[in-house]
Amino acid sequence: MTEKPVFLTYSRSDVTNFAVLMILAFAVIPMTIQTDYWYSSILIPWLCLALAAIGQQFVMGYAGQLALGAAGFMAAGAFACFNIELRIPWMPFPLSLFFSGVIAACFGLLFGLPSLRVRGIYLMVATLASQFFIIWMIDKFGWFKNYDTSGIITAQDIVIFGREFTTPLEMYLVVAAVVTVLTILAVNMTRGSVGRNWMAVRDMDIAAESMGISLLQAKLQAFALSAFFCGVAGALFAFTYLKSLEPVAFDIKLSFQILFMVILGGLGTINGAFIGAGFILLFPVVLNTVGNAWFHGMIDATIISAIEQVVFGALIILFLIYEPLGIAKLWENLKRRILGMTSSGRTGATRRQET
Amino acid sequence: MTEFLFFFEVVLAGMLAGTMYSLVALGFVLIYKASSTFNFAQGAMVFFAVLSFVGFMELGLPFVAAFFVTVLLMIAVGYATERLVLEPLTGQSEDTMLMATIGLAFVIQGLAQAVWGVEVRRLDLGIPDFPIPWVADNLGLFVSALDVAAGVVAAVLIIVLALLFRFTKMGLGLRAVADDPGAAASIGIPLKNIMLLVWSAAGVVALVAGMMWGARAGVQFALVDLALKALPVLIIGGFSSIPGAIVGGLIIGVVEKTLEVYVGPTFGGGIEGWAPYVLAILFLLWRPEGLFGEKIIRRV
Fold first, then answer.
1. Which positions 133-162 of A are in contact with B (Cβ < 8 Å)?
2. pLDDT confidence of A345, banded at 50, 70, 90?
């Protein structure tokens, strides 16, 4: 499979796609959808998790480093945001978000260090350390939780320059705005030199190094930016979706889910992160509804969640065998077949060939 | 003197707990040796095996029959994995294989729960999990009988596996495949049979490990997370070495127990949860191939 060069210019379809998405997100959805359920249970978590999945994409899809600790960085971001809001009350929420991301990025740098020496399963174990360590640290040192003993802390209200954002719709708009800004950033970064360096490292690190790409810089950049995105996503997740802060919400299970989003959505694409997050989030909802409608509650909820695991696992295997580029690629193929388009510039990770 | 005795006790308890990790790690090593695939699903297999074993017992099968039925089931799982997952992915990168086995882990643990349910089950092997009275009285040492049994079982398993690999034709074939699968196939070693054998062996090891863990902590989903601790064990011991799995398990067991007992109280405990992983990172910096592993040489 040959890789088309990723051009830095914006094609016409890019601009129209962007305009359509913006109108959809900020005009059509707020005007048509009135039920709170859609905002607080579907759209908000979807956007938050998609943001975390973009972070995972940087490290895994673009830089090719198998990491499994996204939820740990999300926890770091969430609790950083809580503490900033708590200790510096005048700080506007977007700035708190930014600094939460920066704090998470510091952890990302620290736990990205092993990636300079190891890869594959070794790296995965190293990133698992970050997952367990961050959660443990938040849990054991009372300062992070403001010495709260109940275990569950209510998140502060979102206040931006004196205006409170409390209804699900308002919260959705905050999340959508943040996700929009960061997604534009992510798209530009991955198309630009940063992303190209990552992809070079992914496809063959030794070759990339001999072409003058600094592995140290590229890998640490990937880990730091990944953790930044995860940190912001975690803060948003806690403040707009969970509305509370508890370390258990960010356990290893969430890390696996984010990993699955990236693999199923499509490695090495930004829209894959959104598709994957939507799929992982919505599939259980659909399965539950179908299970209840067909069997009228005769099937236990735990059985349904077990079936869910089987389906996700089987899908991972099937996609790796038949379409390693995930749902994003399937979607692209479908579009091409319907519109008869020739290949558009954006392609994901190529299947890594054995040399 | 009592202080020293206490320290000795902690170390001993750590070593015995470590053999439990070694039992899980052993399954990883078997498959890694034969196919250079890191089988992330080993933990799920442990859970699946012991849950099925308990399930069959609940259906009324006697202990021995349930054991053999489960062994057959694990062989079937191994066969299905080999045919449906590994074969179509032959020649793919290590990362792809690893991701595939992560998917496999979810399939196996999901299936186990869908078939047998999610409630925690007790498993009584007839070995008590409290200090052996005779040792406690005469030597002043508190050592759980179950820990000792796990140690003995681990030792027996390793000796049997070592003998199998060293002295049987299958074992010779396995070592050839581990060395160079292409060359082994070209001289007529039945690759598929070898793989089936290895997956079956890993299944049996998973069952034994699961029985030990299940007797201690109950047969429940948490076993899968416990099995994750086999990963640092493997990093320390080396992925392709059976003695490595044992020594790695012992090291992890001792370090996490001593840290928990002597350093843990300062931080409110819970160090066990991450200490093995951090130890593994430090180990990686010093010796990436593990204590007994083969040196990793990558070519462009």
1. 133, 136, 139-141
2. very low
Break chain B into its structural domains and give their ranges: 2-224
Using the beta-carbon criterion (under 8 Å), do A120 and B95 form an inter-chain contact?
Answer: yes
Amino acid at A195: G
**pLDDT band with cut points at 50, 70 and 90 for residue B294:** low
- pLDDT over threshold 70, residue A274: yes
**Residues B68/B53, Cβ–Cβ less than 8 Å:** no
Which tops the pLDDT comparison, A71 or A338?
Answer: A71
Check CB contact under 8 Å for B299 and A355. yes
What mean pLDDT comes out for the span B279-285?
Answer: 83
Asked if A107 is an interface residue toward chain B (Cβ–Cβ < 8 A), one would say no
Strands (E) in chain A, as ranges, are 153-154, 158-160, 163-165, 244-245
The reply to whether A355 touches chain B by the CB within 8 Å rule is yes
Residue B235: list chain A partners with CB under 8 A: 122, 125
Inform me whether the C-beta atom of residue A267 falls under 8 Å from chain B C-beta atoms. no
| DSSP label at residue B77 | H
Strand partners, A158: A165
Mean of all residue pLDDT scores within chain B:
84
Distance CA B214, CA B211 (A): 5
CB nearest to B107's CB, from A128, A207, A313: A313
Helix segments in A117-269, DSSP class H: 120-140, 168-191, 193-203, 205-210, 215-236, 252-265
Give the separation between CA A237 and CA A229, rounded to whole angstroms.
12
CB nearest B284 (choices: A117, A308, A311): A117
Please write the tens of the pLDDT for every residue from A283-310. 988 888 887 777 776 677 788 888 889 9
Contact residues, chain B, for A206 at CB < 8 Å: 298, 300
Q: Which residue has tokens 């953790």?
A: A227
The distance of B135 to chain A (nearest Cα, Å) reads: 36
- Return the CA Rg of chain A: 20
Highest mean pLDDT of the ranges A185-189, A229-233, B263-267:
A229-233
Would the CB atoms of B99 and A320 count as touching at under 8 Å?
yes
Does residue A284 sit at the B interface (CB-CB below 8 Å)?
no
**Token pair listed for B21:** 């990790």
> CB–CB of A92/A86 below 8 Å?
no
Q: What does the alpha-carbon distance between residue B140 and residue B74 come to, in Å, rounded to a whole number?
A: 42
| pLDDT mean over B285-293 | 75
